[in-house]
Amino acid sequence: MDLKEKASKIRLLVFDVDGVMTDGSITYDENGIEYKTFNAKDGHGLAKMIKSGFMTAVITGRRNGTVDRRAEDLRFTEVYQGVKNKLPILEAIMQKYELDYSQVSYMGDDEPDIPILEKVAIAACPADAVDRVKEVCNFISSKNGGKGAVRELCDLVFDSKVEEEGI
Questions:
Q1: Assigned CATH for 3-165
Q2: Distances in Å between the alpha carbon of 140 and those of 49, 50, 78, 121, 149?
């Protein structure tokens, strides 16, 4: 099955945050408050997916209020923070929505993402992901994390679905 055909079956898009939805920078102010910067084009792509009926989820190892805010603004289906072992969380989400791996895409950028990337239909990563992640991915964005990689994946899945359904 080619990538476009796999993309046309996707119902759930799952993302890591740092290095995927952001450029991986972690900024603190003098009071120790952490800041993250998200990409508006990525946000538009995610909003389009959600409006079109796709489910979206975040599974991230860090915990930060800006992630909650971004997920709330975009109306993400599921948000999990502070997760070290991500695969059981993904499996619980899949069970909740009666999905299998052929209906899931995941975008990650570093080694903790590999157990999921090895199982999902679309294993995606930004252009600046670590080499070990790139080795297991079937979609490597031309964009870096926080710089349009999420949008590129959204466009692939959306366009494949539109083409498949003849819309």
A1: 3.40.50.1000
A2: 19, 22, 24, 14, 9
